[in-house]
Amino acid sequence: MDNSFILLDMLRLFFQRSSPENKADSCDWGKAHGLPATLYLPGTRTWVGILLLSALWQLNANLIHLMGSDTTESVHQARVGLRRFRSTYRLFKLIAKLKPLPLNDDLSALFFFLCELRDIDVARLEVLPRLRRSHTSMPKDLLVSLNVCIDELGVVAKQYRYAIRCILNDTSFSESMWQLTLWLVSIFNSRGAVNGSLKGIIDFSIWAEHRVNVMHQKFLSLQSKGHTGHQNHRTRICAKRLRYAIEDLECFLHPRTKQWWTKASESQSRLGLEHDIVMTVLLVEKFGHSNLATFIRRNHQNLN
């Protein structure tokens, strides 16, 4: 069977679990177990479940699209979906006593190829064309090198897309995704581990405020420690996790955290552009265009 049908079945299963006929049962169950009103949203059994469901939905929908499309945005959104799924799991795994994620080599390989392909697409479709536009007087030999490099990256991008489709159409991958789906469904079905642990929280917003504040302090600390390549990478990852956490916990947080979200988003965007340039330089060097790589390093300010 085409794995796209399996992924569609997963989406259909999620949709059924949030259908109107399930809303009353969800709310009644939440009230019976003494949970704060915000923890039994209509159509879900737990706040944690709906956040994980949303991320997995984003991943599955874009994987389906990737089976028959070369759209770069689908690569990016699938990668974001999986990353947000893992980030949300990391945020709630202790307080909600979540079981270990059933991630295996198939999903790890997929994430690796998505990340590699995204870096290649950004280099050949964004950074290098931007370099060409902003330096119209570029020496002819470097311009030739740049155009050749874009073509070479395009060939490799096709190879990565083929590898991704091979993974998506493999029966072992469909089994991996199904196990991940069953893991998520078990959260909705559970009336013990996940919901019971949240029931014991006197005020969930206190935990949320504390958790986000700790992440914010770490973000500020990293920002103050210099701007080396490694340090910028750590700061960018921290900003991303802080932004995700604020989005996941938004309705429990003080309005001031919106300012933290803005700062984290701005930092992530700025450092993300720098990361794109760094990865482009590495790719250009990998394909033997050392002179072009040197030119990019010397003129990278014009690319931000």
Description:
With 304 residues, the chain is mainly alpha-helical. The protein folds into two domains: 1-201, no CATH class; 202-304, no CATH class. It contains twelve helices and no strands. The longest helix has 30 residues, at 105-134. It is flat, with a radius of gyration of 22 Å. Residues 1-7, 13-45 and 192-202 have low confidence and may be disordered.
Task: Summarize the topology.
Blueprint: H1 3-17, H2 23-32, H3 47-66, H4 72-92, H5 105-134, H6 140-168, H7 171-189, H8 193-199, H9 204-223, H10 229-248, H11 257-286, H12 290-298
Helix pairs in contact: 1-3, 1-7, 3-4, 3-7, 4-5, 4-10, 5-6, 5-11, 9-10, 10-11, 11-12
Distinctive features:
disordered N terminus, 304 residues, mainly alpha, 12 helices
